[in-house]
Amino acid sequence: MKNNLIMILFVILLSLSGCSSVDNTKPQNVEANSVTAVNVEDEETVKEHKSDLSNNASVDEDKTVENVEQQSINENVKTEDANTGNESSTNSSENNQTIPVNNSATTEESANNSVEEQALKTAEEQAREENLLKIQGLVENELKLSLEELKTMDNLIFEDDFYWLNSFGSTGYTHFKGIHLWKLLESKALVKAEATIVTVIAQDGYKMEFTLDQVKKTDYMDETNPDKKYPMIIAWQENGEEYKANKGAPYKLVVGQKQAGDTNKPQWVSNIDKIIVE
Ligand SMILES: Nc1nc2c(c(=O)[nH]1)N[C@H]1C(S)=C(S)[C@@H](COP(=O)(O)O)O[C@H]1N2
Ligand SMILES: [Mo]
């Protein structure tokens, strides 16, 4: 009888310790699951409250409470993550994906955006800088002129149909509008007295060198029309259309013929980068 009692007690003890070892694993899963459940619930309430925003003034308060709740849930998930082994990590990483991963994606995205924005901005700035008309060398005022600035110089603007003769004998007219180069150098850059040479250099390295007298000359000709007289100009508009800013610096040096038979077209310089006075 006494032995039976001891046996019964022993069995009870055994089964109790067996139960408790089952209990050790189960509650963990339940906890993890319950966090997932709360997350889903929470997301639903967020959605609900969002749609409530327009007609409920107390929603802001609710949202603050919710944020606190959400934060504590995140903390729970993190703590759990650190404490649990492989088995329950599926659950907690699921939980992580619902909130924190989203957050870090947003942060990454905005970081990427700002990097891209900055790159774009620098590219734009660079393009703007490259599209400035630079005048350097023997001048009182070295200049970096934007197209907008050039356009405001009303009394320096010249426009006409320019006759051209190319190397292989082809001819034609092209209408150009732009700025009178010598007037620009004389009145804005203030060319120094000792200057004798003007070199016009394009972005692709193509360049033409002129004597200062050639730049000052205002009676370049059209061998087929004695009435025509042209100065040397920096054009920004060709046949009624401005040069596209993404096709290089929007300036072209244009000049008529010095005398009959002068192949003037190859002397034009597209996409001018700078003008150097020496
Ligand atoms: N920057 C630059 N300008 C340039 C050239 C060039 O290769 N690069 N070629 C010249 C030659 S040989 C000719 S015939 C004309 C052609 O003028 P168009 O581009 O208006 O047709 O541009 C001249 N200006
Ligand atoms: Mo040419």
The oligomeric status of these chains comes to single chain
Strand content: 15-25%
Specify the biggest β-sheet: 6 strands, antiparallel
Helix content: 40-55%
Secondary structural class: alpha+beta
Question: Number of helical segments?
Answer: 7
Mean pLDDT: 73
Explain what this protein looks like in three dimensions.
The protein is an alpha+beta fold and 278 residues long. Strands 3, 4, 9, 10, 11 and 12 form a six-stranded antiparallel beta sheet that branches. A hairpin with a 4-residue loop joins strand 5 and strand 6. Molybdenum atom binds next to loops. The site of the ligand Nc1nc2c(c(=O)[nH]1)N[C@H]1C(S)=C(S)[C@@H](COP(=O)(O)O)O[C@H]1N2 has 10 residues, from strand 12.
Highlighted features:
alpha+beta, single chain, 278 residues, globular, binds molybdenum atom, 5-stranded mixed β-sheet, binds ligand MTE, 7 helices
Q: Quick gist of this model?
A:
With 278 residues, the protein is an alpha+beta fold. The chain has helices at residues 2-52, 59-83, 86-98, 100-130, 147-151, 181-189, 212-216, and strands at residues 133-137, 143-145, 157-165, 171-180, 197-202, 207-211, 220-222, 225-230, 233-238, 241-242, 252-254, 269-270, 272-277. Bound molecules: ligand MTE and molybdenum atom (MO).
Topology:
Elements lengths: L1 H51 L6 H25 L2 H13 L1 H31 L2 E5 L5 E3 L1 H5 L5 E9 L5 E10 H9 L7 E6 L4 E5 H5 L3 E3 L2 E6 L2 E6 L2 E2 L9 E3 L14 E2 L1 E6 L1
Parallel strand pairs: 1-13
Antiparallel strand pairs: 1-2, 3-4, 4-9, 5-6, 5-13, 7-8, 9-10, 9-11, 11-12
Molybdenum atom binds next to loops.
